[in-house]
Amino acid sequence: MKKVFAVYAAPTTPNIRPVTVADLKALKQAGRRFAMVTAYDVSAAAIADQAGVPILLVGDSLGMVMLGHETTLPVTLDDMVRHSAAVVRGRRRALVIADLPFLTYATPDQAVASAGRLMQEAGVQGVKLEGGAAMVPTVTKLVELGVPVMAHLGYTPQSTHQIGLKVQGKAAEDARRLLEDALALEAAGAFAIVLELIPTALAAAITERLTIPTIGIGAGAGCDAQVQVWHDILGLNEHAPRHAKRFAELGAAVQAALVAYREEVEAGAFPTEANSSRIAPDVLAEALAPVG
Q: Which of 18, 41, 137, 280 is the most exposed place for a label (fewest CB within 10 A)?
């Protein structure tokens, strides 16, 4: 743990102030774009924080990229608390937002209880939930109680069996509903809205009509910010979705390193003296001498 922080953590100086939700709104007002990336453990959080990424999302996508599920649906609140706590321990400046997992916010009261665990036990600074106008009472309740809420419209992974993995809002009626949902969520107090898999022009139009930031993923460059999944942009999975860009191929690099490690172990080339500890010959002889 300490080694991770020593190598990767951002400098802990008095001049480094943690990012707040107010900072994000100020960025939008100033016309400055920003990035958000998923993080699921302490190492990822520390690296992203040092890289200057202002928001870390502990996404329920961990169900697929970390736990091997086919969808986000099996992710539990306990899963989210555990991974979120690790991310919080790894960051120094970034704002940490955690997803409320499937069916843990079916009512406003249940959402309050779930958000309470994530904020009190894990230490996140806010939560994200999926859904449009139907979520307004829940968002209102959470915000009234001091919970910062990030909304999520368009393709909502927790509804994948209902809506399918496809671009949302291509028909006029659907596009209008997304705009109306965004405005309703803003009025309810959401501090930002993720727009996933919606047409670029629609995302830009929604962004122009909101005073809170929009964060796009597969929604074009007209949003105020962008979010991507850690594994997609770093090349840690076999296939990246169309809306992602490979900024590195770390999966191939890690595999090559592990092949080299295995080969050196098999050949007896590792470990060397430099990787080993010593004991004085006389001490060893004394330890191995027969007793009595």
A: 280
Query: What would the two tokens of residue 101 be?
Result: 């997992």
User: What's the whole-number mean pLDDT along residues 35-47?
Assistant: 98
SS3 202: helix
Q: Nearest 10 degrees: CA dihedral of 27, 52, 120, 185?
A: 30
Which residues does the annotation mark as catalytic?
A: 196
Percent of the chain with pLDDT over 90: 92
Q: What are 228's two structure tokens?
A: 């991507």
b/e map 74-105, b = 16+ CB within 10 Å: ebebebbbbbbbbbbbbbbbbbbbbbbbbebb
Q: Which two tokens stand for residue 11?
A: 């400098």
Instruction: Enumerate domains of the chain plus CATH numbers.
Output: 2-251 (3.20.20.60), 253-288 (no CATH)
Nearest to 71 by CA among 96, 37, 107, 103: 103
Band the pLDDT of 10: cuts 50, 70, 90: very low
> Cα(146)–Cα(131) distance, rounded to whole angstroms?
20
